[in-house]
Design goal:
Elements (H helix, E strand, L loop, with lengths): L1 H14 L43 E7 L13 E2 L4 E8 L51 H10 L7 H11 L20 H16 L2 H7 L12 H12 L4 E8 L14 E14 L6 E5 L26 E2 L6
Parallel strand pairs: 2-7
Antiparallel strand pairs: 1-3, 1-5, 4-5, 5-6
Bound molecules: 2-acetamido-2-deoxy-beta-D-glucopyranose (NAG) (9 copies).
The site of one 2-acetamido-2-deoxy-beta-D-glucopyranose has 2 residues, from loops.
Length: 325
Amino acid sequence: MLSKSFAAVALLVASASAQLYPDQSPLNHTCALQKPLFSCPPQDPLLVDSCCVETFGGLLLSTQFWDTYTGLESKGQLLPKDVWTLHGLWPDFCNGSYTQYCDLTRQYDPIPSPNTTTGTPNGTFVPPYTGPNIGTFLAPFGKYDLLEYMNTYWIAQNQDNAGFWGHEFSKHATCYSTFNTQCYGPQYREHEEVVDFFETAIKYYKRFPTFDWLKAAEITPSNSTTYTYSAIRDTLFEQHGGIPFIGCSGQRYNTTDAGKNSTDTGYTVLTEIWYYEYVYGRPQEGGTVPVNASSTYLTNCAKADGAIHYYERTNGSVRVPTVPF
Ligand SMILES: *[C@@H]1O[C@H](CO)[C@@H](O)[C@H](O)[C@H]1NC(C)=O
Ligand SMILES: *[C@@H]1O[C@H](CO)[C@@H](O)[C@H](O)[C@H]1NC(C)=O
Ligand SMILES: *[C@@H]1O[C@H](CO)[C@@H](O)[C@H](O)[C@H]1NC(C)=O
Ligand SMILES: *[C@@H]1O[C@H](CO)[C@@H](O)[C@H](O)[C@H]1NC(C)=O
Ligand SMILES: *[C@@H]1O[C@H](CO)[C@@H](O)[C@H](O)[C@H]1NC(C)=O
Ligand SMILES: *[C@@H]1O[C@H](CO)[C@@H](O)[C@H](O)[C@H]1NC(C)=O
Ligand SMILES: *[C@@H]1O[C@H](CO)[C@@H](O)[C@H](O)[C@H]1NC(C)=O
Ligand SMILES: *[C@@H]1O[C@H](CO)[C@@H](O)[C@H](O)[C@H]1NC(C)=O
Ligand SMILES: *[C@@H]1O[C@H](CO)[C@@H](O)[C@H](O)[C@H]1NC(C)=O
């Protein structure tokens, strides 16, 4: 099974095919008629309908950011008050590794990162996208409410939001079997799966109100107090049901005044949470089971007592959302 999956990856990278599994029928994807199979351990794509169960990346990561500014405030790109922002919904392999830019015919990322499919110079080059931004894809579907929601909660830093959404779609969403264009049948409308992916990413995001969960444990943004990794971890584990990956940036603890001479080299500014899920049937249906992040990659934050800053946002970078979370 592993070797078959690997062959699918290799084929995909080589041909940049729009179809992950070339034998897949465009007609038979009535998932309601099928038993919702579990995404991990991986199903064999040759034995199941890969439109109805995630056979390519069955470990879903619903990811969020805590930024204190966007860098594009002057253009009106602001952060929503008192809520973490959406980063993405990624399909990792069940073993925790992943692939990216799986279908270059659906490349809408203006700033591909990395710039090859493998991240190494010998991978296939991912050409920067120069067409109308991915946000414009929503208009033919009349999804202006979706666009407004995304402009409120799916916020980039130092990049315009739509470019960031294009990045998330092309780098990650093209790697799902269940968001493959073939899954939408003979009446598929161009970019239908893009809309479906955006709605699905939001469906998961709304389930994980990180700000409120932390607040309930009296962990709130502060430029005068600091927090401890284990308290943040335990709170989010209790609320979510799986231990998320907790990401930090900023200075390493051993380079700070408080951590001088410490052997704790973790970072000290809380910026990111990744919630892990397995899913029954299509990710779109949301029948998930929370799971722990890999025990070998739980955090890059400092673990010392009181080592973590959860910073207040910059004055002028925040607005009160007009559409509810
Ligand atoms: C993880 O799973 C994928 C897909 O099955 C496979 O291609 C890859 O080699 C595996 N990686 C490791 C480290 O086992
Ligand atoms: C499509 O449905 C037909 C009739 O049930 C079945 O014979 C065929 O195997 C199905 N094809 C796929 C790819 O599932
Ligand atoms: C791809 O990115 C790397 C750095 O990540 C850079 O050195 C290289 O020049 C880039 N290649 C192209 C063709 O832009
Ligand atoms: C591609 O380059 C990486 C290092 O940049 C190397 O590890 C890998 O073996 C190379 N793959 C091929 C197929 O040459
Ligand atoms: C802190 O840790 C990093 C990573 O191990 C190391 O490179 C650096 O030299 C250390 N700095 C100090 C001041 O100890
Ligand atoms: C760090 O180590 C130096 C030299 O060993 C020592 O003088 C200093 O007091 C130590 N600082 C702290 C905060 O422990
Ligand atoms: C997740 O981690 C917690 C805490 O270490 C542990 O109690 C729990 O059993 C783990 N869950 C799974 C499914 O491994
Ligand atoms: C809090 O501190 C962060 C990090 O230094 C800074 O970016 C932010 O503007 C500060 N917020 C307020 C309200 O002072
Ligand atoms: C941010 O605004 C608050 C009150 O609105 C004020 O107390 C604080 O000094 C401001 N911070 C900065 C860095 O301007």
